[in-house]
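F.,

This is the one I mentioned.
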């Protein structure tokens, strides 16, 4: 394969290192946690940061990791609880969130009301999305 046509880069650029990204993600998380849930500011921040990460993922400016060709059998078992939670969430969403059958977002609302938990959720979202973008 021709070297110039490869999409993968072995050495990460200076800004794509954890030493740079972790403080940037922490700062974005701390700012994002200041906004109330589902406010215009929170939605604008998510769209701006998510859009920027999406653009980076689609561009060739980002060093890539090698994709996983096939999941192991043990890794496939993690799909079972994820699929079960997804089905329960979809059914509860379609049926309407009630006190007897709340959606996961309704169950997490009391936890995410606090600033530290909301900042940690933002940070988790950013790092998880960054991992997806790098693939």
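My design for it:
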């Amino acid at each position: 394969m021709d070297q110039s046509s490869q999409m993968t880069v072995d050495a990460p650029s200076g800004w794509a290192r954890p030493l740079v990204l972790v403080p940037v993600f922490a700062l974005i998380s701390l700012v994002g946690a200041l906004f109330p849930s589902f406010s215009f500011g929170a939605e604008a921040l998510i769209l701006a940061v998510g859009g920027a990460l999406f653009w980076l993922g689609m561009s060739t400016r980002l060093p890539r990791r090698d994709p996983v060709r096939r999941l192991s059998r043990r890794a496939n078992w993690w799909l079972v609880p994820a699929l079960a939670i997804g089905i329960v969430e979809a059914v509860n969403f379609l049926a309407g969130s009630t006190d007897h059958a709340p959606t996961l977002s309704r169950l997490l609302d009391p936890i995410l009301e606090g600033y530290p938990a909301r900042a940690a959720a933002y940070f988790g979202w950013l790092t998880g999305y960054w991992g997806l973008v790098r693939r």
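The helical segments are 18-32, 40-58, 73-76, 79-95, 104-112, 115-133.

Talk soon.
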